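During the second year of the project, the team shifted from modelling isolated chains to modelling whole assemblies. The rationale, set out in the original proposal, was that interfaces cannot be judged from single-chain predictions alone. As a representative example for this report, we include one of the complexes processed in the last quarter. Its constituent sequences, exactly as entered into the pipeline, are reproduced here:
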Amino acid sequence: MTDRVVPEGRRQRRRPTKQGAVLSERLIVETALNLIAWHGAEALSVRRLGAALGADPSALYRYFRNTDALLLAVADELIGRAQQGWTPTGYWRADLRTIGLRIHASYCSNPQAALLAAHRTTGRPHEIRAVETVLGVLREAGFPDGLAVRIYHAFVDQALAFAAQDAAALALPPAARATDAEVWQEVYGRLTPDTHPHIAAAFPLLAADMRSSGYPFALELMLDAVAALKPAADAG
Amino acid sequence: MTDRVVPEGRRQRRRPTKQGAVLSERLIVETALNLIAWHGAEALSVRRLGAALGADPSALYRYFRNTDALLLAVADELIGRAQQGWTPTGYWRADLRTIGLRIHASYCSNPQAALLAAHRTTGRPHEIRAVETVLGVLREAGFPDGLAVRIYHAFVDQALAFAAQDAAALALPPAARATDAEVWQEVYGRLTPDTHPHIAAAFPLLAADMRSSGYPFALELMLDAVAALKPAADAG
DNA sequence: ATCCGCACGTCAATGGTGTTGACGTAAGGT
DNA sequence: ACCTTACGTCAACACCATTGACGTGCGGAT
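Output from the structure prediction step:
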């Protein structure tokens, strides 16, 4: 149970692996992201990552204490990517929409890591920056502090909750994902009007709508409600 | 790969296990919920569940095709508990609020299981009943089908997503939960106005608000927006 | 220029996981 | 009372994360 991890700063004596690769924390995180992108979330195992790196699987434990630490490092990379190259425009509604959709998209692009990250308060720089940005958008739009805080809370939690929800669906093993999709056709499609009148009546629309995420519409509803709460003046 | 599962209805020839237990789908689901509540989500493995039941692990495959099917059954049980002893009142807004809060409460009351279940479509009886109920509330309130479907989707996903989010927080080991709570005081409380003006200004309100779930307010915002979309007549 | 300590890549083993084919017992229908 | 077969059990397979032991060869020190 001795800790075989050496902090990235103090690292020395790098030695190529049998297959010639030179390992580093950065290379491992990027290889993990590529592995997931290319072979799907379920392909990320220590053994496969080792193989992809051209190293013995156990070499990873020189860089990360366990797979959890590795996934957190991957997740941290994701949070950064969500905010990369964007600044507020000054239009609160457009800004909130963009932030919400960016968080959602970034998490969905790497579901496995997102699942670990979405439920935690990290207190790390990227998270702090996001909090400051959202609060700033609301306060500068003229919402009084008490209201801004409640809206902030609802908005951020909703973005993270939906991101986790949709990421979880993407992270399922392919078999389970296929099952969930088929359930709508096979089970809900067969219900008859006399026992389930509403489902039967709405089924075609329902089956179509459930194929995509409910977040964009839920976000728009929230923005509608927030606009209605905005204190007079420039209803902007 | 032959299917060893016999549908619950046609089941016969029940035989006690070596240790005297008489298995049933219902007993297995309840044992699984107890196992999770008592030993945590990571304790749910086929082997341990078999042991808890006093049966050979492989006996489970006579009742569920695989662990995924078992999880779906557990999820459906939670949905069922959320609806127990409730029927719509005819006031769409009050009904939607009650359903949302009930789902949220049911999942939070069993956080470990909720985490495994909240992301799945079960296609099982309790879920079907919930879908029919929510759709019925919307359609009978006068929402046209297309709109009712989109609102249904946003509403249900929001409830499940927040339920999972808040269940995840409750499911953390006590030490980690305390740490996450302290982050707000320790990290966000120390930010200065010159680098983070908005967080600094709103901090007391923020720290207080973040202690409880953002769901009730988010739900109210969604209901506000839905009310505004309601086609004329009796504004709900 | 040489030496030496130890960092780090490798190997092998441990104990976990889900899942399945084969088997025999005993329960139900006849 | 028989016969069929449901279903509980056993054993095995292939995978997983993790860790103790080991020795190679790099880097710093001399």
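Chain B touches chain A through 61 residues (CB under 8 Å). The two ends of chain B are 54 Å apart (CA to CA).
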